[in-house]
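Worked example 3. Consider a protein that binds NDP.
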Amino acid sequence: MEKVVIIGTGPAGLTAALYSARASLSPLVIEGMQPGGQLITTSDIENFPGFPSAVTGPELMDKMREQAARFGARYVADEVVSVDFTGKPHKITLSDGRIIEALTVIIATGASARYLGLESEKKLMGRGVSACATCDGSFYRNVPVAVVGGGDTAMEEAMYLSRLASRVTLIHRRQGFRASKIMAERVRTNSKIELILDTVIEEILDVSKNEVTGLRLKNVKTGVVSELNVTGVFMAIGHQPNTGPFKGQIEMDENGYIIAGNTRTNVTGVFAAGDCQDHIYRQAVTAAGTGCMAAIEATRYLESMGQ
Ligand code: NDP
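Given these inputs, the predicted complex is written out as structure tokens:
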């Protein structure tokens, strides 16, 4: 029987591992499909405190993993296919068929940005295509960029980038914004942001430079095709929390985000940390913070059970 099982190895899962390992709980960490989470695909991270000359995503995650291992965290290279939280202990089934029993579970499976699904988008990922302005925006100082989407994230990304880029073009597939009125209004009245509506991206162009140089756009009402010169394009068309294996076992909102108060879910002994329960901040440092909270909550819960 495991005292603490942590599912996920992004900053939330690995911080939970560090704290529960230091509490002598010897956590078992299930690494998942993409060990290290979303940061593994990020190049330089300039906004994680403590790294004045930046750190790469893979390097930061390696250090976090090693730090938790030093205090006794154990890792399993497998992924969770289903869970049974209906009784005690909690049961976790891995893809190799193994069933792990646990007194507490910390879910830190993160979220994945949605992309358009274009081949050119895949090819130019990290070479002008991004899904996080806070992470990558500062690489686009004084150059033109585009943001795709009409929700609050797109508005926030456009506002953020307008302080850095020479020009921001917000491209949305219809006239109406899904975003809150106040955020849409801020965008509409920002002189550095230009709107292109009723329009989709047909292709991301690189003119054989292997870096984004522009976009081929299509107006969905008129069919007119045009080109826009940009150096970066930020996808803000939503995120998908990686919570599939927990559906029906735990309370989630209509978008699949786990509902957690101070990391406690509606199932006793089950905690959630990081982006799988946060659609607002989505930063490495906030994920790490909630990972710490979840580990403290799990430790207190185990203490209350005399463990
Ligand atoms: P949303 O789902 O709200 O918006 C996604 C946007 O992307 C929509 O405008 C949608 O268009 C567009 N879109 C989706 N798929 C495609 C596609 N294939 N091609 C082109 N466009 C596409 O996601 P957000 O990430 O913006 O927000 C998620 C949640 O987080 C919301 O509840 C939001 O309010 C919240 N949030 C809150 C913030 C805050 O309060 N500060 C900040 C950021 C997010 P369409 O409208 O046509 O469907």
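Take a moment to read the result before moving on. The radius of gyration is 21 Å. The domain at 119-235 is CATH 3.50.50.60 (FAD/NAD(P)-binding domain).
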